[in-house]
Amino acid sequence: MKIIAYPFAGGSSYSYAKLSREHAHEWLVLDPPGHGSNMRQPLMHSIPEMVAALLEPTLRASAGKPYVLFGHSMGAYIALAMLDRLVELGARLPQRLVLSGVAAPHCRASEHHAELPHKEFLEWVANMGGISAEVLSEPQLMELFEPILRADIGAAEAYVDGSQRQHDVPVRVLLGQDDRIALADGLAWAECFVNTPEVHSFAGGHFFLFDEVKKVQSLIA
Questions:
Q1: Which helix (H) or strand (E) holds 85?
Q2: Fewer CB within 10 A of the end CB, N or C, for the chain?
Q3: What is the 3-state secondary structure (H, E, C) of 133-192?
Q4: For 78-104, how does the pLDDT look when each residue is reduced to its tens digit (9 = 90+)?
Q5: b (16+ CB within 10 A) / e for 167-178
């Protein structure tokens, strides 16, 4: 099985190294423009733009062996919108869609964290976890990462889609019990698919997946 994955806000192809290490399946994490191996490309500010940019590499990666689409946080919305695009194209569909650390995109409260002033924005990012205090306190690093984080978080917060999908692709939703995402917002994913997704909750906050590596690996593929 191949895992085609999309990174969370501010992430890159290295973001899931802990998950892909010692996993029995092949991982391919695709960098959106402005991230990782595509750092020199202009950042994008919407999920549909990112999907358009990543469509061709996704189609190439999905050829051959069976595959799973996976994403955490912003990456989950990319994975969802990518599946919609693949369905539209009549392309080969994944064996499973795994959506991690994200609320259903039609029911969550409107948020605008990407527009916060510098200090408040960094405090909010720090509370989410995933970026070390050392990086957050290093001005030169944050001069590089803050625009990426703002673009990504803004894209995720602006993404709204209440479609009910008819396709026969099994869906799993993974949630952190101490995340800011309400369980009800996670359970609302059931309204997005004809076939009700499995919902699995884990101890931990937004980045629970790095504390529960083996369990998360087993649910991805």
A1: helix 74-89
A2: N
A3: HHHHCCHHHHHHHHHHHHHHHHHHHHCCCCCCECCCCCEEEEEECCCCCCHHHHHHHHHH
A4: 999 999 999 999 999 999 999 999 999
A5: eebebbbbbbee
Q: Is the dihedral angle over the CA atoms 185, 187, 193, 199 positive or is it negative?
A: positive
Inter-residue contact 28 to 1 (CB < 8 Å) = no
For residue 184, what pLDDT is reported? 75
Instruction: Copy the structure tokens of residue 198.
Output: 């499995």
Cα–Cα distance between 216 and 19 in angstroms, integer?
Answer: 8
Nearest to 94 by CA among 64, 50, 131: 64
Query: What DSSP character marks residue 65?
Result: S
What is the pTM (predicted TM-score) of this model? 0.94
The residues, any chain, with a CB within 8 Å of residue 133's CB and separated by 6 or more, are 126
Query: 48: which DSSP letter?
Result: H
